[in-house]
Amino acid sequence: MNLPKDLQYFSKMLGELRKLPYLSSKNLYKVGVSILEMDYSAVEKLASVLTLAKQYSKKCLQCHAYSELDLCLICTNEKLSEKKICVVANWLEMLTVSTAVDFDGKFHVLGGLLSPLDGIGPNQLNIATLKERVKLKDVEEILFAFSPTPEAEVTISLIISTLKEFCEKIRFFRISSGVPVGASIEFSDRSTLTQAFAEKRALL
């Protein structure tokens, strides 16, 4: 869609919005027009909260979830066991699991899954900090909550290999195959996830 030349700033705004992933070209213009039709005070408020969210949100020093604290509320919750860790690929999947399932342990966000074609290798994932947690917290159980994909299988194998010195005291599990192949945990419903966790299976 070609915009008139007298809409330079609107065009620049669309250019910035276009940089956001998951915002299709079709919806891009609708979002842009919605912003133009907002009250000026509402636009100022939107710009302000975007800036504040970016300024104050950071990654938890222990599990790598987003938080405005050095350690997130799950990591500081003493009612949750330090000896159980649920490993997830990303923060959105952690949010889904933590709200849908009654897991009595802590979480660890890897920051992705191994995918050499996408430039994601072991050094791009939070595996070293997971190993450090296992060492310091005397972890006894690690549960992999990944969507069933080839990348997930390779990532699980790498983590178990990395933690091989602790294999005598750690039990490794993965959630059951209740989550459809190729489906994202992020979009799984509560009943599916509850069943997948309840029917977790041992890996070693």
Explained architecture:
There is one protein chain. This protein is of the alpha/beta class. The chain folds into two domains: 8-56, Helicase, Ruva Protein, domain 3 (Orthogonal Bundle); 70-202, Dna Topoisomerase Vi A Subunit, Chain: A, domain 2 (3-Layer(aba) Sandwich). The chain is built from seven helices and seven strands; from the N terminus they run H-H-H-E-E-E-H-E-H-E-H-E-H-E. It has helices at residues 8-17, 25-36, 40-56, 91-100, 127-137, 150-162, 190-198; strands at residues 58-59, 66-67, 81-88, 105-109, 141-144, 171-174, 201-202. A five-stranded mixed sheet has the order 4-3-5-6-7. It has a two-stranded antiparallel sheet with strand order 1-2. Helix 1 (8-17) crosses helix 2 (25-36). The protein is elongated. The N and C termini lie far apart (56 Å). The model has no long low-confidence stretch (mean pLDDT 92).
